């Protein structure tokens, strides 16, 4: 039996003889592999972008919102009433063991002024936990503290968009800005987060202490009420448990029973993440499947040409058998040739695929993600296509009768 | 003299669809080491079938074929491939060299399948080419050589594995009369050096260069006689032993 090396030499020689044909045969595989790599790169890039956006909200989060209540036969929509209080939030933090942090908040908007600049933005009243819950970083200054909340101080944190618009390049820390004409001291600047999955600018925000917002800024008629409570579970594993604990606690605190409908709702944000990841995974698989079809078509092209090649070289096969080549040798020779064709095609396709993905990334601005795994799998797949589609022609060659083969014209 | 080939009562039957063709109907003969035998007969006489069996490309339906004392009729396909590789050298009418391949690479081919290392392959191929008078032509491609030269490359290829027998199937069928004599003189020279040669031909004047004539008709040997071989004039470029 000849060595693999010998078969490789023979195969290389055979392909050199028919360069144009070899290239055209490879084209199917080239296109197939290039398509698979580019599609998977684009698909996984898009799904990474989406999951990055979702995780920028914060991880392992439950969002507790005020529910609907019925008054006089009219049901209000979800969040339409003000049933959640700061005390609810503190109780959740104190009594639910699976909860790591609780960030009650109220939301308002207002005009902000600094010097001759002004900007309209969203103002949240928050507690210090908000920074942890939402995975914010503080790039300058400090977080607001519990004593800021308790003392209802006029300190605030500003997002990057606000900082850019009010301060340009200068350092905002310790500067006084006016929010709805009330002076606030900027104690810290939040790091950049970018867009939310809904396309909102998450950096266009100001955080003030919760009490300050409730009493001085938003002027609510129920000073203890909060707009929503973000609850962060200790880990992804206990998220469901935390949801149960919060539900039980709120049911108890709000005296939910047969005669009283539930006046709050809990949304599990990691479900959103799971759903989105699922849909982008489906998209990746779909793109990959479409691309693999072209790979299979390329494989059939290889088989076709290999069959032609076997017929053309019947005499050569006869000579080789007559002078002592075994069935295995002939099989190996043609299999090597097929695999060589597909792996060469695979390599070229890989380069084209990577280049194509980069091109899409730079022209359309879609992110692409090329993983080493994809490349290894694509390469292994192209070799596999060679073995699969090369086997039948190779076996046909190996089982030729040497007497007939030598007489073949 | 020792025996290289022993055919005993060999029968070969082909089935082509409905039809059964009895190509050999009980052929027996032996060949001693160092003989130069020609097998003759009209087409359809069974001489080609006999050649295929002698060449281990086919096995007898009945009867036995001993090559160097081994009953090759009982060997597996792979073992037969090895016998062809190690003990037999083939020379065909149509030369059957690989296209777009140099003379040396063609000659090396049996050694590739015998898994001889490259450096030894090269040395042995060059030596075999020298024996057929083609020293210096090893880098030529098959299509750059004349018919006679191509056939000499084929003979070198048959020689290179130091076989027990060289089997030649109408080796001069595609050559003009002058080249025919040239090729026959090479065979005679190799035979003088002790190589056993069995040649199929239908041309009596080619058979005249051999020392034994076996004549086939209708699947049977009808005549088997020693012959006073005519000496082919030695062309200048063929070195003597």
Short description:
Chain A is an alpha+beta fold. Chain A has helices at residues 4-17, 19-55, 86-95, 129-133, 146-150, 160-167, 210-217, 239-253, 269-312, 314-322, 327-364, 372-398, 402-407, and strands at 61-66, 70-71, 74-75, 99-114, 117-126, 138-141, 155-158, 176-179, 182-190, 205-209, 228-233, 264-268. Chain A starts with a helix and ends with a helix.
Task: Please provide the count of β strands of chain A.
Answer: 12
Spans of at least 5 consecutive residues with low confidence of chain A: none
> Helical element count of chain B?
7
Give the end-to-end Cα distance of chain B, rounded to a whole number of Å.
21 Å
User: What structural class do the secondary elements of chain B suggest?
Assistant: alpha/beta
CATH topology of the domain at 3-95 and 159-226 in chain B: Rossmann fold
The tally of structural domains of chain A comes to 2
Radius of gyration of chain A: 33 Å
Estimate the helix proportion of chain A, in percent. Answer: 55-70%
Mean pLDDT of chain B: 89
SSE order of chain A: HHEEEHEEHEHEHEEEHEHEHHHHH
Specify the overall morphology of chain A: elongated
Strand proportion of chain A: 15-25%
Q: What would the average pLDDT of chain A be, to the nearest integer? A: 84
Number of helices of chain A: 13
Q: Looking at this structure, what is the CATH superfamily of the domain at 3-95 and 159-226 in chain B? A: P-loop containing nucleotide triphosphate hydrolases
Please tell me about this protein's structure.
The complex is a heterodimer of chains A (409) and B (241). Chain A has 409 residues and is an alpha+beta fold. Chain A folds into two domains: 4-53 and 275-407, no CATH class; 82-262, no CATH class. Chain A is 55% helix and 18% strand. Chain A has helices spanning 4-17, 19-55, 86-95, 129-133, 146-150, 160-167, 210-217, 239-253, 269-312, 314-322, 327-364, 372-398, 402-407; strands at residues 61-66, 70-71, 74-75, 99-114, 117-126, 138-141, 155-158, 176-179, 182-190, 205-209, 228-233, 264-268. Chain A has a six-stranded mixed barrel with strand order 4-5-10-7-9-8. In chain A, strands 2-3 form a two-stranded antiparallel sheet. Chain A is elongated. The relative contact order of chain A is 0.19. Chain B has 241 residues and is of the alpha/beta class. In chain B, strands 6-7-8-3-9-10 form a six-stranded mixed beta sheet, with helices on both faces. The longest helix of chain B is centred in the last third of the chain and has 16 residues, at 177-192. Chain B has a domain at 3-95 and 159-226: P-loop containing nucleotide triphosphate hydrolases (Rossmann fold, 3-Layer(aba) Sandwich). In chain B, 49% of the residues are buried. The interface between A and B is medium-sized, with 23 and 27 residues. Chain A: It is a multi-pass membrane protein.
